[in-house]
Every structure is written in structure tokens, then in C-alpha cells.
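re: that complex we talked abt at group meeting.

here r the seqs, copy pasted straight from the sheet so there may be weird spacing, ignore it
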Amino acid sequence: MAEPAIRALGLTRTFATVRALDDLNIEVPAGSVFGFLGPNGAGKTTTIRLLLGLIEPTSGSAQVLGFDTRTQGAEIRARTGALLEHSGLYERLSAEDNLRFYGRVAHMPKAQLDQRIQELLTHLGLWDRRQEAVVKWSRGMKQKLAIARPLLHRPGLVFLDEPTAGLDPVAAASLRDDLAALAARQGATIFLTTHNMAEAEKLCSLVAVIRQGKLLAVGSPADLRSRGGGQRTEIAGRGFSDAMLAMLRQQADVSQALVENGRLVLLLKDGASVAPLISMIVRDGGEVQEVRSGQGSLEDVFLTLMEEEK
Amino acid sequence: MNDFVTVLWKEWKEIVLERSAGSAGSYRPLILIAVFGIFMPLRMGPERFFSTAGLLAPTFFSAVVITAVIADSFAGERERHTLETLLASRLSDHSILFGKIAACMAYGWLISISCILAGAITVNIANWHGQILMFHDAASWLLLLLGPPLLGGTIAAAGVLVSLHATTVRQAQQTLSVGFAVVLIGVIFGSSMLPADWKAWFGRILFTWSQADLVLAAAGVLLAIDLALLSAGMARFQRARLVLD
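got the structure back, here u go
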């Protein structure tokens, strides 16, 4: 069996009294797109910093591409690419100079670097504007360039920290397509942090969910869907009180009950029947106008996990 | 060495682009060259301009230019959110630190040499008698060669120490300005408060040593300060602290 690209064993990091990461145990298979999901402040960025050897763990250990993060940070950084919390672009420089700088940092030969810059910028539709200062670009264009930067030297492992954060839906979708195509062509391992479940579902072969530094679940998106939120039922109507929600949450077949946009949303375990629950809602004074059932999404699983841990 | 040159290349491009035509800071180098390369040399005349004392102004002036640029080195990267990405690269601590210092020193040196060259041309044109006027003593040439890099090195190394942990460029600039003012005031007041036998000793040195010897001695002191400040910079360059600051 191939060596995993990342292996973390009991990885823990504390800042003063705050435990930012608590006993993280994960294995990221080489060549996979691994989604690291969690809300803001969950410990995603701290994990990337630890895996890049930028900060030291308080306890535990991690190996990245076979190198120890405590003692071999330089080797890890030489073999990986990283798009961190911010784009990291030098806005006074042109797009080409930004890539040229990081290509030279990666010791790429000039001819190979020229070819790679052209290939990436052409693929992302930025080639014609390569000599403009990045400061003049739109946010979407900057983010595309920011994603091209860590892929430039074809590293074996790429860290992408919320690559579509702050983009409008159209730009985010376009960027996701570009990212999927680039990842497929390059065949690298991608460690992607996000709180966008659709993004994780589309791009990742494996996902982990983290909250307040603790790992809550790991598996393929399909696995997690079947584990956490087999069925999603949306009920349109009136009279969905807090007391009713509390009562529904106590039912064995209900993983989660919440009100979204005026509709009652029930996440049910696999094989559960919604009919007894409808009767219960009506008995409790609720008015049911329409019921729709379907497969639960990764977002439903994520919300369930977040609620369970509260 | 390769990485050092790469950082130097990037820093140089950023410094020059910020001050290139059309940008807000583009007029500053031109004003400085006009004042120190044309106006002052004209007022000084050939005798004072082509002397060791005449070279002190552009030497100190290169230090002032470096102060403005070095504050941006790390604080600017932190403010523009590019520092963590730089630290997450394969670049070594030394190449980042020395690349940034060297770029600032090179910029200060270039402005200083431009002023001296412009001054030499201005003085020659204004006082043309069929013969080129030039620096004629060893002390002037020594100061010309050693002054800007060594004093620039002191300022750049001190500036990078401040910039490493300043939150913003403005904060770094303010700290540097206050720091240099304190040093200057300390030297002025401190020298007047020295014991009489120390003052006599310094007086003897000033009157008995040649100007070239004085320049070499000052260069030696500056070199020692530069090395001490660079060592302090290397000790304070800690990736984890820079990432978390």
C-alpha cells in the first residue's frame, strides 16, 4: 500500500489557554483530494500551518510526504505548494512576475518556468493580461492567479485554504471547475479546507469534519451522507414551535430538526418513515401543507455534526 | 546564493515599481536628487563639494532613503498579507532576511551615487575652466566607497529588526524615526557630558590622525555595529513567531 501523503498522530496545538487543535489523527492518501471541513475558528488554518512546519505542535506528530513536520519543515515546504488564508500575491508586481518569483524560489529552470507560466495562465484565461499589475485585477482573477501559484512547480502536495472564500457564486463555480481540471491533470494530492459543502462534495474524494479543534468524522462524501443524514424531509406549513423542534429531536429516527426559510427540515436516519412524524407534528398543533423527501446532502451531515457537538 | 538573488530581485522590483513613473512616490527620488545633486553642490562650490566633509551629506542622506524603504520590508508584507505565503515557501531564513536588507541598501546606495554624480556634473558645469574637477584625496574616495554601504547597512539592519515585528509600515517608520532621534540626541548630549580626559583623547585623535585614518576607523566601528545588528536580526527571525504575530 502506498505511503499516505499526510499522517497526523495525536496532533495538538494550544495557544495560551485555547486548544486550537486537539488530538488530530488523520491519513491523507497520496493522489487524493482531501476536504478539511469546519466552521470559522475550527482549527483548519492551524492544521495547515502545523503540516507545513511553520509552527510546532504542542504534542503529537505529523509526517508530510514522509518528512517530520517538527524537524524537516524546509524539506516539506520545498515539496509542497500552499495557498493560505490570503492570496499572498504581490499586487504591485505583474501576474507574470508573481509566478516568476515563486518559480525561481522553486528553482525551476527558466525555459521550463516560461512554458509553465504560459500553460497555467492560458488555462485560466489570464495570459493576455499577464503584464498588468495585479492590483488592477478583479478579486476572481486574483484568486485564480493565487491558485496557479502553488501549482506552478508541480508539487506532490498542495494545500488550499478556502480557495473560493469571498468570491461571488459565478466566480466560485468557475474557479472550482478550474481547480478540478488542474487537479486531475496534475495528479497531485490536494488538501483543501473549506466551509463550503458543495465545493467539498464536488471536488473531494475524502472529507474530514473538524469543530473546535476536534475531528468529528472522516470518510468519503457518500459515506458521511449515509452515516449522518440518510434522508432529508422538508415540510412547508405553519406552527413549527421551538417545543415541537425539541420534541422531534428526541425521536430515535431524527438526526436533526430545524427551521430553514420558514420550512421545517428533518434529517432522518436511513430507512426511517416520515409518516409517524407528520402525525406527531399535526397532533402538536402544526399545519402541514407540503412534504418533500430526498437524499440528505453533505451540508445536512455537517449541520448535524455541528449540532451534536454543541 | 540563488535564493538570496531571487529575494533581492523581487524586493528591487517592488521598491522600484512603487516609485516608478505614475505612482504616488515617483517624485521623491527626483526631489532628493534635485536638492542634494544640484542645489546643494551649487551652493557649496567645488572646494567644499569635492572634499571629505562635502561627502557627508549624501552619505547620511542615503541612510534617510533606506529608513523609508526598510520599514516596508516585513511590516509591509504583513500588512499586505503576503508574509505567510513567503514563509511557507522553500526560501531559507537567511536568504529572506539578507535579500531584503541588500535590496534596501542597493536602493539607498543608488540614490546616493546618483546625487554625488549629479553634484559632480553640476559643479563641473558651473565652474568649467577646461579641466574636469574631481575628488582628489584618499579620505574622500574611502568615504565615497565605504560610507554609503556601511552606514546604509547599519540603518537597514536596525530597520529590519523593527520591521520584523511591527504590525504596520507606519508603526515601523514611527519607531525607526523615534529610535534614530534618540540616538542622535544621545550622541550630541552624551559627547558634551563626557569626562574631560576622554574629550581630550578624542580631540587628540581628531587633530593627529589623517582624514583617511579617521574614515577607516569610523568604517571599522560601523562594520562592527552592522555585524552585531545582523546577528540580532538572524536571532529574531523566527518563522513561527512571524506567522503568529
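couple things i noticed - Residues 2-244 of chain B form one domain. Chain B has a mean pLDDT of 88.
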